[in-house]
Specification:
Strand order of the largest sheet: 4-3-5-14-6
Number of strands: 14
Low-confidence stretches: none
Number of helices: 10
Strand content: 25-35%
Mean pLDDT: 88
Structural class: alpha/beta
CATH architecture of the domain at 164-264: 3-Layer(aba) Sandwich
Distance between the termini: 51 Å
Length: 302
């Protein structure tokens, strides 16, 4: 008989790439994790992992078993949920990946509120501003900010609109002048966002016309916080989501420019692997977040 605990330990080891990290994530010792995987291999009579000096890699059989094992674990969690008495008794684990900067500023409060409502639910949060492989990583849900999505392997739910402003510091504008139109940005130092391939081309929508301007700049970074620091320091102009800017705008450390021109709207999406039935815990979290960000006070922060 195959033990579900052993399957979960094996799948987590594949995801982490080594036994030590997997054991830590599962709150067990490395020796216990090793015994569980050995027991699983013995029950299947096949080698699932290849041990190396750097960690572990799944064998061909291990890769196949990992894919099926993740589905088995998800189905078990769904079955557990179905026998409970509704949304007030969510159980199991939710694996969520989300942008780090957005999460630090705008996900902490709603997620903690959700966790308080569902104390029997556990969370495994992976925060990264890099695009994460949702299916390969075994995530239940990914939060992603983008103008549009091109990943057709995932189902998407639009949760909120994200507004973008072009900003500079008063000191920068005093020294270099204030751009009056998007075309003026060609003569200014602008910041490139490394996670967007076309970040050197900024698009604008104005009264009856659209513009695409190729900007120049001396700083490229994958961090919105670093972009904001450069703006505050009077080094450059940045195009940033509004959620980064509230404190800086209130303190007059930065000011919006080109207010007659709007940057294209982005959206916060919830993405999940396509399945016949969406797990109840994922659906409830998606609905909770959509309702949270729809509240006027919370919406103003985006």
């Amino acid at each position: 008989m195959i033990d579900l605990v052993n399957i979960r330990t094996f799948c987590r080891t594949v995801e982490e790439g080594n036994l030590t990290a997997a054991a830590k994530a599962l709150h067990i010792t490395k020796s216990v994790a090793s015994r569980r995987i050995q027991a699983l291999e013995d029950s299947l009579d096949v080698r699932l992992l290849t041990r190396t000096t750097r960690g572990v890699n799944p064998t061909d059989a291990g890769t196949l078993f990992y894919e099926r094992g993740m589905k088995i674990l998800a189905d078990v969690d769904d079955a557990r949920q179905l026998v409970k008495s509704g949304n007030d008794n969510l159980v199991g684990q939710l694996r969520v990946t989300a942008p780090r900067s957005f999460s630090d500023l705008n996900l902490q409060e709603p997620l903690m509120a959700f966790a308080s409502l569902h104390p029997k639910l556990s969370f495994d949060l992976h925060l990264s501003d890099q695009r994460v492989d949702v299916i390969g990583g075994g995530y239940d849900l990914a939060l992603r900010i983008a103008p549009a999505l091109d990943d057709t392997s995932l189902v998407a739910k639009k949760l909120a609109a994200i507004h973008t402003l072009v900003v500079a510091s008063p000191a920068y504008l005093k020294t270099y002048g204030t751009p009056q139109s998007p075309d003026d940005l060609k003569n200014h130092n602008c910041i490139f966002y490394a996670n967007i391939a076309a970040s050197e081309q900024w698009r604008f929508m104005g009264a009856g016309s659209n513009k695409a301007v190729r900007v120049n700049g001396s700083l490229t970074t994958n961090s919105g916080i670093m972009q904001l620091a450069a703006v505050k320091a009077g080094i450059a102009i940045a195009s940033l989501p509004k959620f980064f800017l509230h404190g800086a705008l209130e303190n007059n450390e930065v000011v919006p420019i080109l207010q007659n021109w709007q940057r294209p709207e982005s959206f916060l999406y919830g993405l999940y692997p396509e399945r016949r039935l969406l797990p109840v815990k994922v659906r409830v979290l998606l609905d909770f977040l959509a309702n949270w960000y729809a509240q006027p006070g919370n919406q103003a922060c985006l």
